[in-house]
Amino acid sequence: MLVLLHLALSLDIQHPWVRAILLAHLGVFLVWQPLWRGETKLSSKHVAGILAVSLVALIWLNWWVLAFWLGGLFSLVGGRVFAFSSRWQRMYYLLMMAYLLAVLLLFVAPQMFGIPMFEEAAHGVFSLVLLIPLLVMAALPVEPESSNETQAVDFFYVLLLFLLLALLVLGSLASMLLGRMAYFPALLRTLTILAVALFALGILWSPRMGFAGLQASFSRYVLSIGTPLEEWLKKIAAAAKQEHTPVAFIERATAYLVEMPSIVGMAWLCEEGHGNLGVSSLHRVELVEEDLVLTLFSRQAISPTVLLHMRLLAQVLGHFYQAKRREQHLREITRQQTIYETGARLTHDLKNMLQSLFALTSVAQHDAAKAQPILKNQLPILTQRIESLLTKLKAPGEGDEESLVPLENWWEGVRQRHQHRGVEWTWEGGSGEEQAAMLRNCKLIPAPLFDCVLDNLFENACNKRLNEPNIRIEVRLKPEPLHIEVVDTGSAVPDNIARNLLRTVVPSENGLGVGMYQAARWAQQLGYRLSLKSNRAGSVIFEFVAAND
User: Fold this and answer.
1) pTM of the full predicted structure?
2) Where are the strands (E) in 99-172, listed by range?
3) How far apart are CA 515 and CA 355, in angstroms?
4) In this structure, are 196 and 296 located in the same domain?
5) pLDDT tens per residue across span 127-173
6) What's the chain's average pLDDT?
7) What gap in Å lies between CA 205 and CA 208, rounded to an integer?
8) Shared domain check, 158 and 106
9) Cβ neighbours, 10 Å, residue 196
10) Is 270 helix (H, G, I), strand (E, B) or coil?
């Protein structure tokens, strides 16, 4: 493309071959141009427009038309030169910019301003010196352009570079006419003025000495080119708060996206489903964010700047969508964990109830007369606990806080249920009427939780008594503040078990060792704390208190 341009400019503008060479130059430009993708099929309207502009420019060919064309080429190259990460590609396009700028300022502009004394020297410079950048460009290593770099043209940068170049050329002309000076001094004067102006704008652009800078004021306009970005972000943020499933969020967010001025329709596809909104068109762009695929349809060809904003919108939408998926996954995990914990806890409750029932039947076998009042008192309690267990199996995680009973009733029931186990019951803080009055004034407690904790502590102590028959088991209750201790005088819990006891599942000689862990977890969820207060031989104390006490 540049070789054909160089060859055409080497000839006189009135030469009969100039227009043919420039037409070939335009054809090669269409192959190289970064505005449309190479695989894009141009419509008949676009082809007619290109041919019309090309023919008009060639029929009325003059130095002003060439200057305008060189300025456009320079701006197109400059608008994408900083998009390349490769060193050789960037150097290639910088040399192209240098060549086009030199041709415009050293050859076309003097011809355009009609400087006869400069024409012969300019031809010599053009023919020899300006061949050097082309030769260097031809010798540079070739690196393929990626698909993203091929379309990396920003209209704003192109327009800015074209206006700066036009200001440089026309400013040189104004300096020549008003200052009555030669071309080169006028060009240097204009370059100096532009350099000072750009330096001043660079200082004002960034904050200096308390000044906020033009960047903050200008960036919100640049970020809103073609799309009401800020308003859309507010809407999808609100949708993210109100919708709880990924599909509902995607449907609502895409409905907002179709309201964009440049979008007439879209389609989305993800693991949860798919959908279509609006209408389809010939101009489409497909954006992929992990497993979310968005296809956007626009009224007209999407410019690189608008495409950049669309990619940003797709990324934001994709991040919100993935957050909704993670949120739903966490809810499922929480639900499964609730089912698991409830099942494990109820399994231990059932085991404790069966052990209690086994103890009652053992007493009945040995002494029926003594067992009759015990069975009369305990069987209704066991029946109530079984009904509660069945209710929880139907709705895991629900109803734990509903079975609230007075502390006095629970205390009497647990004493009667375990009266045959040889346990000492101690109430701290008074006796007689004071104890009864304080018990009546105590707050309600979640009986299932207290039963679960006490049953697990009793079973562990009773299992220890099988190997250490003479140990004493004591339960201490202090109503204000609520404080329960289960004490046994047996051996200490081994250190390797005590370190993880109540924090995770620990190995157990009589089972899987999850009963104490589940009891501690349940207590924590309802605002209580179960801990190993003392762990030494002759004084093993488990403490059960309210978490805020």
Assistant:
1) 0.45
2) none
3) 14
4) no
5) 677 788 888 888 888 776 654 444 556 677 788 888 988 898 888 88
6) 77
7) 9
8) yes
9) 10
10) strand
Going by their DSSP bridges, the two strands 423-427 and 444-446 should be labelled as unpaired
Q: Are residues 320 and 244 in the same domain?
A: yes
Is residue 183 domain-shared with residue 232, that is, in the same domain?
no
Alpha helices by DSSP H, 243-303: 246-258
Which of 195, 219, 243 lies at the terminal end of a domain, its last residue? Answer: 219
Residues 256-305 pLDDT 10s: 778 777 788 888 888 878 888 888 888 788 888 887 888 888 877 776 66
**Residue 349: both structure tokens together:** 């409750």
Which residues are CB-neighbours of 28 under 8 A, at least 6 positions away?
1, 4
> Which amino acid, one-letter code, is at 308?
L
Identity of the residue numbered 239? A
Residue with tokens 């379309």: 151
Q: In this structure, how many other beta carbons lie within 10 angstroms of the beta carbon of residue 481?
A: 9
> Which whole number is the average pLDDT over 197-204?
82
- Of 67-71, 114-118, 408-412, 462-466, the poorest mean pLDDT is in 114-118
Separation CA 457–CA 515 (nearest Å) = 9
Question: Residue written as tokens 């000689």?
Answer: 509
Contact present, 519 and 527 (Cβ < 8 Å): no
pLDDT at 82 over 70: no
State which residues form the domain around 120: 62-219
Please indicate, yes or no, whether residues 474 and 531 belong to a single structural domain of this protein.
yes
What is the sign, positive or negative, of the torsion defined by CA atoms of 280, 281, 285, 286? positive
Indicate the SS3 state at residue 473. Answer: strand
Q: Looking at this protein, which amino acid is placed at residue 426?
A: T
What DSSP line would sit under 5-55, residue for residue?
A: HHHHHHS-TT-TTHHHHHHHHHHHHHHH-SSS-TTPPPPHHHHHHHHHHHH
Measured between alpha carbons, how far is 64 from 158 in angstroms, rounded to an integer? 19
Place of tokens 């010196």: 129
Tell me the one-letter amino acid at 406: P
The radius of gyration of the chain from alpha carbons, rounded to an integer in Å, stands at 43
Strongest mean pLDDT among 7-11, 222-226, 359-363, 400-404: 7-11
Given 271, 297, 325, the domain boundary residue is 325
Q: Has residue 250 got a pLDDT over 50?
A: yes
The neighbouring-strand residues paired with 542 are 486, 532
Mean pLDDT of 379-406: 64
CB burial class (10 A; 0-12, 13-18, 19+) of residue 292? buried
At 360, the amino acid letter reads L
| CATH code, 536 | 3.30.565.10
Give yes or no: residues 203 and 237 share one domain: no
As a whole number of angstroms, the distance between CA 172 and CA 166 comes to 10
CA distance 534 to 547: 18
- Other Cβ atoms within 10 Å of 397 Cβ, number: 14
Q: Are residues 208 and 174 in the same domain?
A: yes
